[in-house]
Amino acid sequence: MSTLIPSGDKHDVTWKLIDADSKSVGRVATAAAILLQGKHKPSYTPFLDLGDHVVIVNAKQAKLTGNKENKKLYRQHSGYPGGLREERAVTVRKEQPTRIIEQAVKGMLPKNKLANSMYRKLKVYAGPEHPHAAQNPIKYEVE
Q1: Which of 105, 125, 87, 111 is nearest to 26 (CA)?
Q2: pLDDT tens-digit map of 47-80
Q3: In what order do the strands lie in the sheet with 122-124?
Q4: Domains detected in the chain
């Protein structure tokens, strides 16, 4: 008896909708990372991208627990000497509210060649509206 290895092109892809309103950023990011990797499916295979598309709405209302709103730093470097930029979570939420959830999910994805294709299937929006109604996303509840 041999183990069934699913083909990369013959799998059912669904769209999931996560509402981040008054939910913890970590809980939302964990649920999204599991859906993007396909770990919720019985046909999960670590070396194939069998995950679903994930749409996250209301990213602006997601909560950071504790005092992270004032203390957490988001860093990016331009590659030039002295090119390090640091911003607190309060500033990032005002300017780019989707970046907080995007970076949390990206950090939870595997560090391999499949991570980019998984990350491309993530769509994050600051408000309740999204342009993916034609894909009929299924609402996914996060604790």
Answers
A1: 105
A2: 999 999 999 999 999 999 999 999 999 999 999 9
A3: 122-124, 53-57, 15-19, 138-139
A4: 15-64+96-139 (3.90.1180.10)
Q: Give the largest CA-CA distance in the chain.
A: 59
- Contact assessment for residue 67 and residue 96, using Cβ atoms and an 8 Å cutoff: no
What whole-number distance in Å separates Cα of residue 115 and Cα of residue 92? 24
**Cβ contact 83:77 at 8 Å:** yes
pTM: 0.91
pLDDT at residue 45 above 70?
A: yes
What is the spatial distance between Cα 80 and Cα 86, in angstroms, rounded to a whole number? 15
Q: What share of the chain is helix, strand, coil (3-state, %, to 5)?
A: 35, 20, 50
Q: Fill in the DSSP letter of residue 109.
A: S
For 94-98, the CB contacts below 8 A with 24+ separation are 97/59, 97/60, 97/126, 98/59, 98/124, 98/125, 98/126
